[in-house]
Amino acid sequence: MRIEETAIPGLLRIGLDVKPNDDGWFKENFHREKLADLGMDVVQHNVAYFAELGIVRGIHAEPWDKYLSPSSGRVFVAIVDLRDNETFGRVETFEFGPEQALYVPRGVGNSFCTLTPHTTYNFLVNEYWSPERVTVDLFDPALAIDWPFPRAELSYTERDAANPSLDQVRTQRA
């Protein structure tokens, strides 16, 4: 596991060892002790499968830390700091597959777009799911996220399409 800090405090990009074999590959995606060293005690593992490319979800900041990694396919990930601090609104984007993971601290918004069909995405979290979260508009011009496909070609939920702007989130926190 190779850990790289990012411009968002607490957001870590993690390189995973993927070992090719005769049948495909093997990776250690979860190791309790290694994640505990990051301050994460995993209590729930969620898996989402996406059949098509261009599926977008987010931007959601939940009250738990997340460890994210695809086990198949590739994703474009946009992360937004939604914590009430000096890096509020800062955006980081990544493209990765099974060889990488992200550690996203609570209060930092996560979104992703599938880049390949048949993408399977793993979410390990350190609190049980609850509906509490802060959301922001995927297409807010203030974020200037350069999605990998034109908006008209993306598939997203009506719920995500109704997320507030970054300015509205800032005002709600004031």
UniProtKB/TrEMBL annotation:
Record's protein name: dTDP-4-dehydrorhamnose 3,5-epimerase
Chain positions of site Participates in a stacking interaction with the thymidine ring of dTDP-4-oxo-6-deoxyglucose: 129
Family: Belongs to the dTDP-4-dehydrorhamnose 3,5-epimerase family.
Gene3D superfamilies, sorted: Jelly Rolls
Organism per entry: Kribbella kalugense
Molecular function GO labels: dTDP-4-dehydrorhamnose 3,5-epimerase activity
GO biological process, one term: dTDP-rhamnose biosynthetic process
CC terms in the record's Gene Ontology section: cytosol
InterPro entries given in the database record: RmlC-like, RmlC-like_jellyroll, RmlC_Cupin_sf
